[in-house]
Design a protein that fits this description.
This protein is α/β, with parallel strands linked by helices and 190 residues long. The protein contains 5 helices and 10 strands, in the order βαβαββαββαβαβββ. Strand 7, helix 5 and strand 8 form a beta-alpha-beta unit. Helix 4 crosses helix 5. The protein is elongated, with a radius of gyration of 18 Å.
Length: 190
């Protein structure tokens, strides 16, 4: 009997492997009372209705395009996620039937676990392709490690240069380039 539900919100979700991953993980761990779903939301204002329609929903992963926008809808946010300005994980608790949403960012610590072995040897600067929630998490983590980051996006704004500006940049000054855009995401890997 399913007593706990979890899921992923974002749009589009056709590329997501999350359902398959969590279904297999629940089986491996003998967690028989939980299910994972993909919830394609075109608009974030549909989130509260989704949560009220599913009283067994205990948590959500958050992906494109909502990692930054969701921050304004939360009841509470972990301090590190607040500093990053992006959330990719939400815990849902209920207080007298009313859902309370607390946001977390797991992108940053996961990225740091993977990248730390490559940071030795004088890495001073990184170029971050993208300027969304994942880019914010990557930049925040690298900056904590003493790496200066430059984000690149389609349009320039404070702290972000455009791809057109890359023609004038000296790319040799960047020891790391991180792609946080959806470009190359399965199934459109080419």
């Amino acid at each position: 009997m399913i007593r706990r539900e979890f899921g992923l919100i974002g749009f589009p979700l056709s590329h997501s492997f999350s359902k398959k991953y969590f279904d297999e993980k629940f089986q491996e761990e003998n967690i028989l009372d939980a299910a994972f779903h993909l919830f394609e939301l075109r608009h974030l204002h549909d989130l509260r209705r989704l949560i009220s329609d599913r009283p067994q929903l205990d948590g959500l992963s958050v992906t494109i395009p909502f990692k930054e926008e969701i921050v304004g809808l939360l009841d509470d946010i972990e301090e590190e996620a607040r500093r990053i300005g992006a959330v990719n994980c939400i815990r849902i608790t209920r207080y007298f039937g009313e859902p309370l949403l607390k946001g977390f960012n797991t992108d940053m610590p996961a990225f740091l676990r993977v990248i730390r072995p490559y940071l030795s040897g004088g890495v001073k600067k990184a170029l971050i392709l993208g300027a969304g929630g994942a880019a914010r998490a990557v930049s925040h983590g690298l900056e904590r490690e003493g790496v200066v980051c430059q984000q690149v996006s389609r349009t320039s704004r404070a702290g972000v240069i455009s791809y057109d500006d890359l023609h004038d940049a000296d790319l040799s000054e960047y020891q790391i380039i991180v792609n946080t855009t959806p470009l190359g995401t399965f199934p459109d890997v080419h």
